[in-house]
């Protein structure tokens, strides 16, 4: 059933009507003057308190401004705006189509920011709407449905779910009228289809699709479309061992990208060209190319660096057979820093990414170089600038509060207050007063007015841990704060406006609590827009040596080394208490052995030494790296078997996104079909 739009609720004001601004914004959007639409929308937002408007008008302001930000590639701002539109539409019971359109806008921004899992969730909600109601209710028309299908297609491609991607591309999208009638939409379609065909290793058809992209881009005068299509041509040449053709294409692309000052395409073309030179054993040219693009690389944002790292890792693994065919004799000397194997990433890209981490405000908060932690770093970079609520999930001791601090440190609120509040550490009777505050005389013992944590953290960030322990009644009051940005102190006569960014955490699965009626469903949907799942320490054992060194530096003034045998025991131990248990172990050792210069295995806790006895025979004759790989392979194969061969479920249980999980399986030479034999 469709929700009904509410009438105007704000009285007439001296500042005029919001509708005047809405008309001007819409006119600018139709003319594709997004800067003008943004400027008018921001003025309207500042003057909103003096304007007369309905909830529907306010919703239109947010969505139209969100569209302007989206087209200007200001994704964090657009995401915030569409989230506000979602809150407005939900709070005022606007028509279902308007609620879903806000989710659609959030999905587009999340996809652009490469938050694939979260974007897919939003697009699937939109998809369900169309199944229920069709495409006849504005703004959920057929064009929006087409764009949703594009979003689904790209999400499935990124997750390597090729059958689902094929269904969207070859069946559902192909039947839409805009694919044929609108050249710009057709261009988008050919590009998506080309990427699918590359992933499916149908290279001839992929070339045809990208050739059509070039023709359409020329007709529409979209230079960036031409350059992006050429990148894919070069990738196809590389995959088919046509290195000279790839070099020719990339040189041309690099020249045109420089002329158009497109930094992203300059770097992508240059990095691929460097790889081509490496495959041709032209090391001097490869090194020179990396140096040429270094200045442009430094101007790109960290999210670009992370995402291109992922893409190049995948491509370079595919190119390994090509490199093997071309190599004869020993490898050239790349001691100057160039990659030394066909599947290695360009040194300039790795150094740029490492530099961003080394200079990040969260370097000392989040430690690790494992693939799962690289995903965490990337997500911090993507979500920190946005103001949306975030839900961090993970076992006790995995560092949820540190991640919250890292998000705050990397946000636009970093100069403001960060407060942490643990729901499980405060009795229920005191929880409301602690969070919302109280006035003098509100209850026995209230001798003065006191602000609560929410109000104290206004303009900054409030981290609320163990949110699953909060009572249903308190959840209702917290929901009101999230929707209205107003706090009502206990005993107060009026509400207080707040501007607090919320980060929530729990060591329980909140979705399961919702199913058990122990957590409000409406609150869950407010706080799970962005979910960050932290891996257990046993799932990122390659980070243990880094964490050990970090804690030694933190708690000891002198330089202390640790023996290889002790590190081996640390790595073999499952760490049920996660990082917190490891930190406590280091502190215990330093207290018991204050003069030690070398930590040996005899200094470790009995539980750690005893655990190693059960796995000691496995480590005989194996290096630490070999032992870690064997351990990872055993855990993954056992989990896949436990999930009856369901790789998606196994990845979820082990805290991996599906694409990185497939990469890990490929690295360890695991396939679902052979996993029984590996056990």
Q: Return the structural class.
A: mainly alpha
Report how far apart the termini are.
Answer: 52 Å
Characterize the largest beta sheet: strand count, sense, and whether it forms a barrel. 5 strands, parallel
Radius of gyration: 27 Å
Helix content: 55-70%
Query: Which ranges are low-confidence, i.e. pLDDT below 50, for 5 or more consecutive residues?
Result: 1-9, 327-343, 674-679
What fraction of residues sit in β-strands?
Answer: 5-15%
Number of helices: 32
Q: How many β strands by DSSP?
A: 11
Strand order of the largest sheet: 2-5-8-1-9
Average residue pLDDT: 87
Question: Could you please describe the fold and organization of this structure?
Answer:
This protein has 679 residues and is mostly helical. It is built from 32 helices and 11 strands. A 5-stranded parallel sheet has the order 2-5-8-1-9. It has a two-stranded antiparallel sheet with strand order 3-4. A hairpin with an 8-residue loop joins strand 6 (486-487) and strand 7 (496-497). Residues 1-9, 327-343 and 674-679 have low confidence and may be disordered.
